[in-house]
Amino acid sequence: MKCYKTGNNMSTNKIQASMLFERINSQNAPMIIDPRSSKEFKGGHIPGAINAPVGKILLNMAHLPEVRDTEIVLACMHGQRAILAKAIMSLYGYRNTSLLEGYILAWQKAGFPLEK
User: Fold this and answer.
1) What is the DSSP letter of 4?
2) 87-96 confidence digits (pLDDT tens)
3) Are 19 and 13 contacting, i.e. CB atoms less than 8 angstroms apart?
4) β-strands 97-100, 72-74 pairing
5) Which SS3 state, helix, strand or coil, does residue 11 take?
6) pLDDT the model gives residue 91
7) What domains are defined for the chain?
8) Strand pairing partners for 15?
9) Pairing of strands 50-51, 2-5
């Protein structure tokens, strides 16, 4: 994973679509959380992803791992909900979270499959 600096000097971990695809295929994938709505998720998501809408994460109602250092990648279509979910999860003590670089749009652009 690459570490990027954001404008507010907080580091943001990101993983490239190709690296995530390789890890999924090698059966060494991190937990992938898609914070979009159930309807959007059912329309197509990264293979193996679980749906945890950002509202449920905020209300601590999502089925998140009990182990707070579980490796997690957050991915939504354009990034806004993934970024918000990552911030909320950080408040809940999750420290090993990353964002999919370019989000699901980059995943699709690279030609990788979506599950329905």
Assistant:
1) E
2) 999 999 999 9
3) no
4) parallel
5) strand
6) 96
7) 2-109 (3.40.250.10)
8) 100
9) unpaired
